[in-house]
């Protein structure tokens, strides 16, 4: 079905930050086939026309670091130190996670992401075949990786073969909306031998690799003590760092680390909400961006954030860099919007999305900007970044398909997901 959206403000997130007022956007065969002012008779070329007066179209958000099924652990353990939280609360509860739980937890995350305007995301977790099923049902674009951790030996080989099986079964599946990456969890949960093996396998199949890297100062101190070098240097030595690498966090990085990240063209994912909540520190995002490193944005899992709201991350990212640099010009509107859209698409390897332009995939959202916090209308982009609200997202379109219309999710059963999730959470926490 072809679709024409008309009379909206259109934020393109292109190179020059173009905004088209009273614009029209045509969609055909999943792609944007018209972008510009509305012209007479244009509506006759499309099967359906949606009137969007006082509303704003922009590219869907790309949540470049998430653990979707961790929604099941949301609000289970808060206000704790990262290692204490991870090893004493999260890992034990995760041991009780079943395939069924992963499916419904992932579905809950997708429901939340769609409602907040996210059209693509990156995931590292377990039971990823179930998450792939949920993604296919939802229609969201997803880069999925089976989280890998351990020392070496049979267990390592088994996990890697599991990840490869996921790759063979789902990579470029569901009409190209699903990609599969290799996901060694971190340098503190994988041995160097493990990291080297993953790097070798990833090179062979040209897969993306995602890893948590230098998330905290403690991680760096322990790594230096154990291996005599920083996590970035260790990952580089293992051969893990290249232009297909997605490195989450990069909070505790020094000049040499950042230079390695730049040289290897690594994609860095900033997770300000999670870094603040776990008191991990503030990533030197402005410095890295100024060096030319591609910086994307992510929420991290819902148990360390505790939501999957990209608009909140956008605002937090901008504020944090302003505070740390004591410079209110740091991470301005256009830059932070790109981090949440086109930079994330590049990081995940979804080449044809993140920007509104003719020929690009029609992955976009419509925000109802007819609300008090968007008035007066000086600057639509600023209004969305600094005073917008993700619950104002009314339409979500992915590959030209309507996933949400007037706030109602079309592809998923919202009531059922909430019911199943509550049932599973009660079962998991009562054992
Ligand atoms: Zn994470």
Automatic annotation (TrEMBL):
Cofactor: Zn(2+)
Keyword Hydrolase: yes
UniProt keywords, alphabetically: Hydrolase, Metal-binding, Zinc
Binding site for Zn(2+): 65, 67, 212, 300
InterPro entries, sorted: Amidohydro-rel, Deaminase_MtaD/DadD, Metal-dep_hydrolase_composite, Metal_Hydrolase, MTA/SAH_deaminase
Annotated positions binding substrate: 94, 146, 185, 215, 300
Entry EC number(s): 3.5.4.28, 3.5.4.31
Lineage top rank: taxon: Bacteria
Catalysed reaction, written as an equation: S-adenosyl-L-homocysteine + H2O + H(+) = S-inosyl-L-homocysteine + NH4(+); S-methyl-5'-thioadenosine + H2O + H(+) = S-methyl-5'-thioinosine + NH4(+)
UniProt cofactor note: Binds 1 zinc ion per subunit.
Residue span, Amidohydrolase-related domain: 56-402
Record keyword Repeat present: no
Function: Catalyzes the deamination of 5-methylthioadenosine and S-adenosyl-L-homocysteine into 5-methylthioinosine and S-inosyl-L-homocysteine, respectively. Is also able to deaminate adenosine.
Family to which this protein belongs: Belongs to the metallo-dependent hydrolases superfamily. MTA/SAH deaminase family.
PANTHER family: AMIDOHYDROLASE-RELATED DOMAIN-CONTAINING PROTEIN, AMINOHYDROLASE SSNA-RELATED
Stated name of the protein: 5-methylthioadenosine/S-adenosylhomocysteine deaminase
Organism taxonomic ancestry: Bacteria, Bacillati, Bacillota, Clostridia, Lutisporales
């Amino acid at each position: 079905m072809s679709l024409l959206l008309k009379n909206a403000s259109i934020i393109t997130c292109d190179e020059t930050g173009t905004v088209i007022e009273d614009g029209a956007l045509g969609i055909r065969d999943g792609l944007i086939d018209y972008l510009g002012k509305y012209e007479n008779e244009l509506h006759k070329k499309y099967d359906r026309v949606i009137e969007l007066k006082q509303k704003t179209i922009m590219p869907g958000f790309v949540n470049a670091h998430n653990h979707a099924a961790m929604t099941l652990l949301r609000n289970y353990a808060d206000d704790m130190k990262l290692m204490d939280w991870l090893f004493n609360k999260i890992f034990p509860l995760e041991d009780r996670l079943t395939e069924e739980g992963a499916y419904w937890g992932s579905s809950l995350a997708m429901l939340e992401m769609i409602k907040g305007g996210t059209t693509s995301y990156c995931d590292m977790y377990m039971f990823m075949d179930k998450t792939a099923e949920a993604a296919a049902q939802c229609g969201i674009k997803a880069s999925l990786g089976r989280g890998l951790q351990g020392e070496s030996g049979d267990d390592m080989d088994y996990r890697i073969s599991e990840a490869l099986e996921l790759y063979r079964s789902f990579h470029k599946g569901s009409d190209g909306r699903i990609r599969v990456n290799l996901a060694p969890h971190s340098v503190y949960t994988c041995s160097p031998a493990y990291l080297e093996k993953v790097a070798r396998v990833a090179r062979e199949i040209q897969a993306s690799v995602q890893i948590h890297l230098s998330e905290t100062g403690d991680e760096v101190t322990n790594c230096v003590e154990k291996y005599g070098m920083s996590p970035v240097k260790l990952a580089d030595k293992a051969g893990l760092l290249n232009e297909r690498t997605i490195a989450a966090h990069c909070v505790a990085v020094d000049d040499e680390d950042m230079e390695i990240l730049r040289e290897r063209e690594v994609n860095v994912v900033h997770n300000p909400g999670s870094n603040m909540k776990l008191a991990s520190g503030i990533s030197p995002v402005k410095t890295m961006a100024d060096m030319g490193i591609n910086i994307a944005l992510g929420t991290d899992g819902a148990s360390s954030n505790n939501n999957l709201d990209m608009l909140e991350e956008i605002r937090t990212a901008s504020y944090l860099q302003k505070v740390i640099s004591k410079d209110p010009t740091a991470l301005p509107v256009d830059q932070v919007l790109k981090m949440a859209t086109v930079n994330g698409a590049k990081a995940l390897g979804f080449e044809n999305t993140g920007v509104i332009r003719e020929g690009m995939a029609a992955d976009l959202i419509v925000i109802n900007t007819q609300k008090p916090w968007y008035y007066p209308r000086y600057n639509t982009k600023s209004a969305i970044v600094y005073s917008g609200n993700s619950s104002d997202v009314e339409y979500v379109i992915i590959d030209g398909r309507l996933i949400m219309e007037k706030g109602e999710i079309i592809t998923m059963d919202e009531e059922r997901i909430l019911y199943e999730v509550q049932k599973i959470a009660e079962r998991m926490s009562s054992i």
